[in-house]
Each structure stands twice: as structure tokens, then as C-alpha cells.
Amino acid sequence: MSQIKIGLFFGTDTGNTETVSNKIKEKIDGIIGADTVDLIEIYKKEAEAFAPYQYVIVGMPTWYDGELQGDWETFLPKFEAVDFSNKKLAFFGLGDQYGYSFYFCDALGIFYQIALKNGATVCGKWSTEGYEYDACKAEIDGVLVGLCLDLDNQDDMTEARLDKWIPQVLGEFGLI
């Protein structure tokens, strides 16, 4: 039997999403075994990059007034072409809930809708408790479609959120 692999796809400009992606990889490897997660920066990738993975984690920041990070904006048409049938996806995103309170983690909501339309089973939904924002495309039916992190205003909560979210995602993936 081949080893289970999780594809963790991320885009980053400042390095924050990459840093969080590395933390997620380390924590998952600590729970279910080393070399379980392949870190894949979305820059210059093709839609086929998702093909080898049944389990996918997608990480992205939201910029300014709800804008997509540059690499994800470029990749958006390719993401729309990915067949996510028989794949389990989890999303995490970075945003600023105070400085951009009407656009907090909007990118997650945009990509979530596409993933659903393309057959994904989305895991890792997260409570809105403890956040203060005015609007968020990632909030659907009172729940966030993935883990939202605010490194600018709530960085002290990041580790605890990751420590709770990662086992949740792995459980929903059926890996623990």
C-alpha cells in the first residue's frame, strides 16, 4: 500500500502563508508521520498539480479590499478547471479582520464555491467565535469555510487554532 500524501497548496507574497503552511506540515507530520505533506507553491503550477492528491489543503491570504493574492489570481482559471470529485479539501486563509473588516478572508469563500462546484468534499469548517469582522465571503450559513488566521491582530491565537483545526481536518479526511 502506498503512503498517504496530502498536497498543501499555497500562494504567498510576504511569506506569512508559507510560514503557516510549514507549521501545518510539521504538525501533520507529527500526528500521522513524516513526509506525509507535500508543500506546493502555486506559482507557475498547472491544474494537473492537484491530480495526485486525494487530500488537499489550500492556503491563501486575502489582500486589501478582498483581492486575491497574485499567484492565486493568476491560477484562478486553472483552479476552475480542476475536477475535485473524490477529493477532500480543506482551506485556510490569512486576513486582517480590523483593517479590512468587510473583506476578511474573502479569498477562501471564492475558492470554496469553485471547489464545491467541481465536486470537492470540503472539510475543516471553522467557528466564527473569537473573530471581529463586518463581512466575510468565507462565512456561509454562520460558519467559516476554513480556518481564518489574523497574524496582524490575533497572532497569539494562531498556534491554538492550528492545534485544534489540524486534527479536525485529519479526522474529516479519515486519516485519524
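(ticket continues) Second input and output from the same batch:
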Amino acid sequence: MDPKLDALQQRLGYRFREPAHLVRALTHRSFGADHNERLEFLGDAVLALAVSALLFGRFGGSDEGDLTRVRAHLVREDSLHRAALALGLPDAMRLSEGEARGGGAQRPSILADAVEALIGATFVDGGWEAAQGVVRRLFGDVILATDAESWSKDAKTELQEWLQARKFAVPAYRIVATRGQAHAQTFEVECAVPALGLAERGEGRSRRGAEQEAARRMLDALRASDRPGGPLRH
């Protein structure tokens, strides 16, 4: 076997029974018809499940939202790109001459896709336990070294990003009511998204706290509406 592939398997912590699976995982579509996109498709799903299982075990006290945020950070392109560089994938990729001359072996998207393809290939070659082991080696230290809160965003920030990603204007906040004496006031704030005709209210012991609660309720409403069959889906 090619020494580069032998070294890659050592770094991966898995030796393929069928080397053809490894070769295919490293083959970009520019190189030929037997490329890695089907393995990438499979690897994406295997990666999501394996990371979810690791997070479920690591963060026993975290809710679904926190776990989803951490997983999103771990499986996004830049995280996969770093994993690809740690594995030395640029030296192992199979690319067309044109793609190679254009710097394809260093392109983050190509390398991130190859990591997913490698995970898919490991699953095909050795099953779930083998694939889970590879994911644990690639991401286990990161998961152990972090805490869910460090990945969290406050509700106002998350709402603004949700809206901006869908080309909507940022929400508007206004105080609807203030109750109680000056030293123990309760604020009621409305969060409105005029473009969608939506408004939600939240209460808190400070204006900021009330705004966060209103933003959280707006996020919940928007996510429910954005599901298949919801009013934001046509």
C-alpha cells in the first residue's frame, strides 16, 4: 500500500479491510467517476449521530438547544477542515491536475467533505463501532475540554442571527409596562418582527432580562413556524 495511505490509517486509528473504500473516500469528483460524494453523504449522517451520542454522554445536564449548538460547531466546515489538516489529508487527496494546480488540496470545503467521506468509508468497511471510534478520536478531546455554556449564545443574539440568515430585518424591542416599586420593578417588553407580523412578550427584573425572555419566546415561535407545514413554509 502507498506509504501515505498507511500513515493516514495510523493517524485515523483504523485500518481498512478493503483499501478501496479508503481510496474512494480520498477521491475528489474531478479525479474520476468513482469519487467520494456518496461516502460523504453517508459520513455526514454517521458523524452527526456519533457526535450526538458523545455529547449526550458528556453533557448530561444540558438541554436540546445547548446540545444542538455544540454539535453544529463541531460538524461545521472549519472544524472538519482542522481535523483534515491534523490527519494530513492534503497530501493524500486524489484530484485532477487542474484542481490540484488550483490549490484544491488545501481548499477547506474539499477537505471537510473528505473527512465526512472517510467517516462514511469507515462505517461501510467496519460498521458503527469502527466509525464511532474514528469520530471519538477526531473530536473526543474537544468535547471533553469544553462545556456546553461556552458554545451558547444569548437569545437576542441567536434571534438576530436567525432573522439575518433569512434576510429579515432585526427585531424591535419596546417596554410595554413597568410594575412595582423602583427597587423591585418588573419589566414587560415586546419583541416584534414587523416583516412577519409577529410579536412576543417577556418579563424580567431588568429590561435586559425581559428582552431576553421575549427574544426566547420569539425564537420558539419562529422555529415552530419554520417546520414543514408551518406558516413560514409554503
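Agent notes: Residues 124 and 182 are 65 Å apart (CA to CA). The chain is about 55% helix and 10% strand. Closing as not reproducible unless the customer responds.
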